[in-house]
Amino acid sequence: MTATVEEHFEATVAADQRIEPRDWLPDAYRKTMIRQIAQHAHSEIIGMQPEGNWITRAPSLRRKAILLAKVQDEAGHGLYLYSAAETLGADRTELTELLISRRQKYSSIFNYPTLTFADVGVIGWLVDGAAICNQVPLCRSSYGPYARAMIRICKEESFHQRQGYELLMTMMRGTPEQQAMVQEATNRFWWPSLMMFGPPDGDSPNTAQSMAWKIKRHTNDDLRQRFVDMSVPQAEALGVTLPDPLLAWNEDRGHYDFGPIDWSELKRVIAGDGPCNAERVERRRRAHEDGAWVREAASVHAAKESER
Ligand code: 3HC
Predict the structure, then answer these.
(1) CA 115, CA 96: separation in Å to the nearest integer?
(2) Ligand 1 within 6 A of 274 CB?
(3) Statement: the pTM of the whole predicted model exceeds 0.90
(4) What distance separates the 2 farthest-apart alpha carbons in the chain?
(5) Does 73 sit in the ligand 1 pocket, CB within 6 Å?
(6) Which ipTM score applies to this complex?
(7) Interval 40-69: pLDDT, tens
(8) Bias category Basic and acidic residues: which stretches (predicted)?
(9) 148 CA distance to ligand 1 centroid (A)?
(10) Cα R_g (the chain), whole angstroms
C-alpha cells in the first residue's frame, strides 16, 4: 500500500532526510519555515547597519576592506535566505513590506548602537559567534533549501568571527584607552548576545514544534549554554572580563553557570522599544524606496528580454 503524503513527510523528517520544495508539506510547517527564514533574512539585512556605520571611519585601509567584505557578506546572506523563503511560496517584496511595517521581526541584537570601533570587533566576536552557535545546527534543518543556505553562510560566518576577534586582540595589545574601549564594548554587548538565542525554553512557543519537525536541532537554552561555554575561555585569552559576577565553572554540570538574563529587556526590544529600532527600520524603508527605480528598470529589462 503506498504511503500517504503525510506519512511520507513524517518518515522523511524521522529519517533525518530533507524536505524539498517539490515535496508535500503541512501548511503549519510551511508557515513556520517562512516565519523563521524570513526573520533570519531580515536580521542579516538590518544587521548591515550597525557595522556599516563604521565603514567610512575605519582606522586603516585594511580594517575598512575587511569591514566592507563582512557587510557585503551579510547582504548576500539575506538575499540567499530570501531565495530560500521564496521556495516556500513567499514573495520577497511582501516580506520586505512586513519588515518595514514591523509585522515581521529581526534579531534584537541589531537594535543596539555601535559607539566605538571596538564594537565592530565585539560584534564579530560575540554576535557572529552566537550566530555560528545557532546556525551550525541549522545546517541539519529538515528543510533542504534552508539547510543548504546555512552551509554556505556558516563558512563566511567563521571569517566574520575570526576577523572580529583578531581586531580585539590587536586593540588589547594597544594603549590602555584601546583596552578600555574593548572592555566597554564587551560590557554593552554580552547580555544582548545571550538574548539572541531567544526566550528561555519554558517561554518559547515555537521550540517544541520546531524541534519535532527538526527545523531546530537544539533548544534556545541549550544553544545559549553552548555559546557561554565557548565564550568564557575566549574572553580570558583576550584579557577582558565578562560582565557577569555569577559566571563560574560548574564541575557537576560540565558547563559555566551564569547570572539571570533580564527578559523584560528582550521583550521591550522585540516590541520595538530598543535603543535603535526606529532608526533601523526607517533606514531600511528609505533604502527600499530609493531602490524602487532599480527594481522597475530590472523588471522592464526582463520583460523586454522575454519578448525578444
Ligand atoms: N530577536 C527578535 N525576536 C526574537 C528573538 C530575538 N533575539 N528571540 C526570539 N524572538 C521571537 C521569535 O521570532 C518568536 O516570534 P514569532 O513567533 O513572531 O516569530 C518569539 O520571539 C518567541 O521565540 P521562540 O523561541 O518561540 O521562536 P523560535 O523558535 O523561532 O526561536 C530563534 C527564535 C532562536 C531566533 C529562531 O527563530 C532561529 O534560530 N532563527 C534562525 C537564526 C536567526 O534568525 N538568527 C538571528 C540573527 S542573524 C545573525 O546573527 C546574522 C549574523 O551574520 C550576525
Answers:
(1) 28
(2) no
(3) yes
(4) 74
(5) no
(6) 0.98
(7) 999 999 999 999 999 999 999 999 999 999
(8) 283-293
(9) 19
(10) 21
